[in-house]
């Protein structure tokens, strides 16, 4: 008897916008994506394997955390197979994709750059687990450019221990804080309405990070620049926290970017390098 392959169940229209799914996509955690997808569609691992053109054993290993997806080709197969919007996991749209509705005359078309994984309305909306995952998963490079960034060591009790372990494993860490004695930090404090409170937060962060001064591979410096964005880079992933006049960084939007040649990721990475070139040892 010839077996008939069952078609893939239809996904709920809001599946990709569910908070748990959105977070999994932002982390590019395909194992979690598979779990949530199967929960809401009833799809079997065999059905997923068939449409994604991968062995069923791979689907099982990915879902159970025994295999990580790192290949661009596999990301594309999975996205196209189960219908993940490509831009939600940092992939470019397929060539020949049917364009959306034409804009009204005189109104330019707006396209979301392919390296934008997600936009969070505020830094406070970025899941705490995403910060931990990005720091933990970095294998080559971590760059941090902030004025104070107190929320990291203050909100994660093991933050300095994580950075030390990463540096000891060969990860290069460059960490730039605003010079609390600089005019730029003083001005930013006034603009946020907290005066010297911002410089005080920077000094507290420096106290937290003092334990890293002798860590191999950690370069801690101070900058005196006008900072328009806080930048957090983890290999080919980046979070960019915009700075808005009159509002603290915690209340301002965050872009989650995935490296794409010539894209926004490179634009902000170049900005980091320009600031870094002007820094002095902390």
Automatic annotation (TrEMBL):
Family matches, as CDD domains: HTH_XRE
Domain HTH cro/C1-type: start-end pairs: 44-89
GO MF term list: DNA binding
PROSITE patterns recorded: HTH_CROC1
Pfam families: HTH_31 (PF13560)
InterPro entries: Cro/C1-type_HTH (IPR001387), Lambda_DNA-bd_dom_sf (IPR010982)
Record's protein name: Helix-turn-helix domain
């Amino acid at each position: 008897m010839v077996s008939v392959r069952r078609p893939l169940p239809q996904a709920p229209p809001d599946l990709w916008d569910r908070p748990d799914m959105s977070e999994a996509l932002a982390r590019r955690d395909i194992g979690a994506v598979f779990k949530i997808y199967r929960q809401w569609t009833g799809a079997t691992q065999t059905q997923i394997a068939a449409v994604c053109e991968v062995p069923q054993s791979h689907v099982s290993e990915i879902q159970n955390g025994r295999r990580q997806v790192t290949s661009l080709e596999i990301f594309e197969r999975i996205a196209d197979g189960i219908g993940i919007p490509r831009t939600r996991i940092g992939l470019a749209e397929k060539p020949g994709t049917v364009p959306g509705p034409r804009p009204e005359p005189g109104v330019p078309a707006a396209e979301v750059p392919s390296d934008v994984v997600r936009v969070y309305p505020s830094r406070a909306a970025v899941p705490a687990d995403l910060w931990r995952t990005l720091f933990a998963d970095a294998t080559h490079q971590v760059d941090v450019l902030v004025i104070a960034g107190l929320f990291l060591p203050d909100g994660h009790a093991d933050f300095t221990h994580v950075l030390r372990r990463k540096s000891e494993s060969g990860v290069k860490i460059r960490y730039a804080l605003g010079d609390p004695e600089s005019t730029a930090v003083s001005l930013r404090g006034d603009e946020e309405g907290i005066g010297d409170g911002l410089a005080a937060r920077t000094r507290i962060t420096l106290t937290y990070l003092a334990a890293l001064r002798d860590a191999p591979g950690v370069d801690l410096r101070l900058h005196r620049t006008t900072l328009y964005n806080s930048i957090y880079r983890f290999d080919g992933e980046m979070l960019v926290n915009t700075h808005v006049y009159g509002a603290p960084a915690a209340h301002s939007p965050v872009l989650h970017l995935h490296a794409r040649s010539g894209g926004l990721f490179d634009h902000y990475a170049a900005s980091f390098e320009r600031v870094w070139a002007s820094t002095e040892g902390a």
